[in-house]
Each structure stands twice: as structure tokens, then as C-alpha cells.
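pinging the channel bc i need a second pair of eyes. not urgent but kinda urgent?? the chain im working w is below, pasted from the shared doc
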Amino acid sequence: MTIREAAEKLRAEIIQDVFEDTPLKGAYTSDLLSDVMAHAKDGGALITIQAHKNTVAVATLVDVSVIIICNNRPIPDDMIETARDEGIAVLRTGENQYTVSGKLYAMIGASQE
């Protein structure tokens, strides 16, 4: 399942749309960026409420393909610009991390295990 297909199925808004629409290899859910650096896998989604450009920097370090911001958090312009520069998709949803994690798990399976 590609990033755009996942966005459609999640009914998530694509905030930053300049990215390569690659298949998702998994996902990781965390709001602690050091935890993301230690455990997220490349080609996956990061599910979080951390809407700032440091989240993009961490996503770049671990080659995350898409950041999914939950709870309809506002996303600052500098985060969007940084994500565009790095080619990382940014999605936003009104759902919480638990719900989005479960839905993505059902869609793409346990490919990170």
C-alpha cells in the first residue's frame, strides 16, 4: 500500500504533497523523538502528535516516508517547508494515535516485526 492509498483509506488530509509515493513498509507510533530514532524503520510511517520541524529531522535520520499527525494538531509552516525539502509526506487526521496505529496495522500488517 502506497502513502497516498493509506491517506485515502485513513481519510487523512495530505498537508505536504511533494513526495515519492512509495509502498509503506510498516509504521511506528511515538511522541518521544529519541524513541523514534532508536526504533523506527526506514520506509515506514511515523504516527505522532509532535507537529514541529524537529519531527521532520528525526524522520529524515531514520528514513521515515510519511509523518501522520493525529488529533487535528495544527502544523506550522516551517514543518511543512522542511518536510517538502526532505521529500517526506505529512498527513493530518482527527483520529488519535491508537486508532491510526490499529488501522495501519490492519492495512499493511506487522511488516516491522
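so The domain at 3-108 is CATH 3.40.1390.20 (Udp-n-acetylmuramoylalanyl-d-glutamate--2,6- Diaminopimelate Ligase; Chain: A, domain 1). and The first helix runs from residue 3 to 10. — does that match what u expected or am i reading it wrong
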